[in-house]
Model the fold of this input.
Amino acid sequence: MTSGGRLTRLARTRQMYTGEPFQLSRHALCGGDNRRPIPEAAGPQARLEAEVLAKLGGGGQWWSHPLGIARVRPGFGSALVELDGHTTFSSGTLYPRSAHALDKLLPCAEPGVQVTGVVGLRVAGVAGTDLHLTLSGGFSHVVLRGIPGTRWEELLDERWHRYREAGFPPLWRSGSHTEYEKADISSHPESWRAERDLDWIGSALLRRIALFHTSGSAYSTHSWITGDEWIFELDTVLEAPPGHDDFLGSLLDPVWGPALRVERRHCSCDAPRGPDDRFYLRQCTFHLTHRDRPLGGLQLRFRHGHAVYGSDARTTLRKLRAPVKWLDRVLPAHRPDARASTGDRRSARPAETGSH
Done:
């Protein structure tokens, strides 16, 4: 294979992981270390990326791409995250994804109670449809890219005044950690440390966000953190390709994936199916940990069965302009079990430990 042909193959593979346009993937690989074609983040950069994924992928909404992120452009010491245009809640009302992102990320204080949003998050600047974010006291950089027409300045100003009038001091313009943020960290030091052990997982998954779209078959994906484990729940209809082995194979690739290994697994795919299968879900569960270090874990729950939510997720996803080829694969219109509702998206999960 010629060098040009090899670079093309590598760029296609990177595109599968990140969702970047082909030419950008190819450019990113030129002159780089192809043994680590997706660079890893560490320290404050990993924490910022993990916080972005935790807040934006919590679930309860529908998006045109899994987790509401269309693609990511990972770099050395930075990441550019392209957002979907809109989200929709159980009521079916469309809401700009950029506004939803700010609602989840921007820190403000409930005096004497807690800090909501990401502790230490700061707005570093706005350039067109790009919102530049960083963390107080460290070198980190994430860019949120909105769709054309996104007006970040207006969204930020509106929230600043609304939070102040409601008695919740906004914190994202402060130069350093505020007393509210220091108190929030000191009030739960064990959970804070446990979440820092998960930063590498959140960052690694954000930098490979397109796998949920290209190598997965879930039409609904959301996540939460419980203790020292980051849990992802992925809902599929019966036999929608590809299966969980394809997703895991891409995630565990020794070159393209992060340093993960399967610690234990429970698969129900080959269990005998009875006439009552249409009334309940099967679940295949995989627990993953770092290959070399005793850090936090990742749990993947692949739930599969007849429509998880009744009817009619396909209509909602089409309204959100989900890619047609992807939608036809994960929720094919001709299948009788491919109707899922956009109602209350409850799961049998324990009480959540939010990401601070």
The chain has a mean pLDDT of 87. DSSP finds twelve helices and 14 strands in the chain.
